[in-house]
Amino acid sequence: MVGGTWDLQAGQWTDDTSMALCLASSLITQKGFNPYDQMIRYKWWYKHGYLSSIGQCFDIDNATRTSLEEFYHRQIQLKKDFNYQTESEIDQLPLDFIKQVQFDLNCSSPSISGNGALMRLAPVPLFFYRKPSLAVELSGQSARLTHGDDIAFDACRYYGALIVAVIHGESKENLLSDQFYDSHQIWFGSKPLHNEIVRITKGSFKRSRDYKDGIRDKGHIAWALEAALWAFESADTFEKGALNAVNLSDDTDTTAAIYGQLAGAYYGYWKIPAQIERFNKSHSIIVSNAPTSH
């Protein structure tokens, strides 16, 4: 399949994978969760095409663009305040210093709830899966950088928990159970999930007729989460679920990217069809950026 909105070749990835690769590379190089470094890498992608499949940023959503512009503006102010000479200098500042000067890394307004936070999430729960509560909390924090609404925070916490549960060997039945949230409450600590996300945990995605039954992904993170879980629940192979996700025909690359995070963890690398792997032009980059657990 070639063409589409951006006239891409088969296997070239869009913004979803670029941002996930930025996040994975940050976790690996920083040996942990460094939100300042994450935003720097997102900025590099936005401004310079870092980890883009075509060497430049494209398909960036408005919420992410606005947050990255705000981050850059705050960096410029930091540069002036401390008399740094170059952007490279401020990009290399250690997280301890960023915390010391109380640099605000949450660059989104509190009402932003687009799907951009969820589409890049997987590196966080994969990296921290040995510590489920931490993995869930940091999944939420990764969203706040660019998407400030509590719904975005909690959608990422819930999806992060599902990915962690997969790595711990839980069955698909358990993952999709309307008791999953209740039975893993300890992972979520004292912060209850937003009511809209709780509704999804109770099985709102379990509908037989996809689009005709109201499954959508038109940009809102709750809809995106519901659509991805519907695709995962509706199929018994990675490939069938991916096709179901794409055939919803809304924000197709993002729905498939969100689906692929959970489905990829569940089915495993070796169950991804060879023809998909063969066309995946990011294969070597993804393998080299695969997060090792902490």
UniProtKB/TrEMBL annotation:
Binding-site residues, Mg(2+): 14-16, 251, 253-254
Protein origin, superkingdom: Eukaryota
Keyword terms: Magnesium, Metal-binding
Cofactor(s) listed in the protein's UniProt record: Mg(2+)
InterPro entries: ADP-ribosylglycohydrolase (IPR050792), Ribosyl_crysJ1 (IPR005502), Ribosyl_crysJ1_sf (IPR036705)
Pfam families reported for this sequence: ADP_ribosyl_GH (PF03747)
Cofactor note: Binds 2 magnesium ions per subunit.
Any one GO molecular-function label of the UniProt entry: metal ion binding
Stored PANTHER family: ADP-RIBOSYLGLYCOHYDROLASE (PTHR16222), ADP-RIBOSYLGLYCOHYDROLASE-RELATED (PTHR16222:SF12)
Stated name of the protein: ADP-ribosylglycohydrolase
